[in-house]
Structures are given as structure tokens and as C-alpha cells.
Automatic annotation (TrEMBL):
Gene3D superfamilies: 3.40.50.880. Its EC number is 6.3.4.2. Residues 30-112 form the Glutamine amidotransferase domain. This is CTP synthase (glutamine hydrolyzing). InterPro entries: Class_I_gatase-like, CTP_synthase, GATASE. Belongs to the CTP synthase family.
Length: 189
């Protein structure tokens, strides 16, 4: 969907689409993989473990994989980014940072995320993390205010002034002067 959106809004291809949704689009930026046969469902999908080679040494996802040159992950695909449009998309800033071993398939695209800071996470990313930890409803019920006391592992006796400085967007205190507090922790069974 990111590829379709960029093609429509940045490249100006208002009809850009996936052939899954519109087989007659004049800008098919997402297409069926050559090995997929829609007439014969079964054994025509790209399945199983596949090697992805990183093409950008500074990309975040490569760092998350321990700076390996490549990774192997499971796939289950019928559609792919149309190689015909990759250069146009990259010229406008889309970063395909992982490709198939032959370089023809775009395996990983990295979306820039400029707003998150260590003490001020971007709301969509924070919401995702909160949902994954099972804390989203409680967070929303507190008017989206972070609270170290809501952490499963909070056991600090820090006073409220330090806690408030740590989580206040208006704080003038340097982050380095504040104590380490675990905000998110996995629930313990």
C-alpha cells in the first residue's frame, strides 16, 4: 500500500494500483509474481524461507538483524512491486533496502519515521507498542499519558517530581540527568 500511495501522491499517477484490485490500471505498481497462476490455486505462490540481501548498510532493519549482509525469512506472496517502476519510486525517496539474491525482487522497503524521539515517541508507534503489550486501553484511559507506575516492573521509589519531569513534554530537564525507568515490559505469567 505504501508503494501505491507514493505512486499516486508523489509521482502523480492517480490511477496507480495493484493488479490484485484493478487488472486494467495503466500504472500497475504492484503485480502478480510470474510464478503465480490465478487460474490454478495451489502450488503457485512464493512460499517458504527466502534469502533477502540488504542493499543499504545504514538501514534500520539491517541493524535490527545484527548488521548481517542478508537474512532468511519465510514468505507467502502472490504479488510484488513491479520492477518496471522501482527506479521511479526510488528517485522520489522510497527506499528498497532488501532485495532478492538476484536483485530483481523488492523484499524490504524502509519508511522514514522522523518524529519519534527517545522520550517523545510518535503516537502511532507508541500505540502499536502499547497494543502489543496489552496496555493500549489503560494508556488511552489516562488521556495518553505515560506512567511508570503502569509498568509491570516499576519498583522505583522516585518522587513524583522526577517522574513528572521524565514524562512531561514540557520538561526542561536533560534526559541524561533522569533515572532509567522501564516503561514497557512484557507481562509476566
Amino acid at each position: 500500500m505504501a508503494v501505491i500511495e507514493l505512486a499516486r501522491t508523489v509521482l502523480g499517477w492517480t490511477d496507480a494500483q495493484s493488479t490484485e484490485f484493478d487488472k486494467n490500471t495503466t500504472h500497475p505498481v504492484v503485480i502478480e509474481m510470474p510464478e503465480h497462476n490465478p487460474e490454478q490455486m495451489g502450488a503457485t505462490m512464493r512460499l517458504g524461507k527466502r534469502k533477502t540481501v540488504f542493499t543499504d548498510n545504514s538501514c534500520t532493519i539491517k541493524k535490527l538483524y545484527g548488521n548481517k549482509a542478508s537474512v532468511e525469512e519465510r514468505h507467502r506472496h502472490r504479488y510484488e512491486v513491479n520492477p518496471k517502476y522501482v527506479m521511479d519510486l526510488e528517485e522520489k525517496g522510497l527506499k528498497f533496502v532488501g532485495r532478492s539474491t538476484d536483485g530483481q525482487r523488492m523484499e524490504i522497503l524502509e519508511l522514514e519515521e522522523y518524529l519519534t524521539r527517545p522520550m517523545f515517541p510518535s503516537p502511532p508507534f507508541l500505540g502499536l507498542i502499547m497494543a502489543a503489550c496489552g496496555k493500549l486501553e489503560a494508556f488511552i484511559s489516562r488521556n495518553c499519558q505515560l506512567s511508570p507506575r503502569a509498568s509491570y516492573e516499576y519498583d522505583s521509589e522516585e518522587d513524583d517530581e522526577v517522574t513528572q519531569a521524565l514524562y512531561s513534554r514540557d520538561s526542561k530537564s536533560p534526559a541524561t540527568a533522569l533515572p532509567e525507568i522501564t516503561i514497557f515490559a512484557a507481562p509476566q505469567n
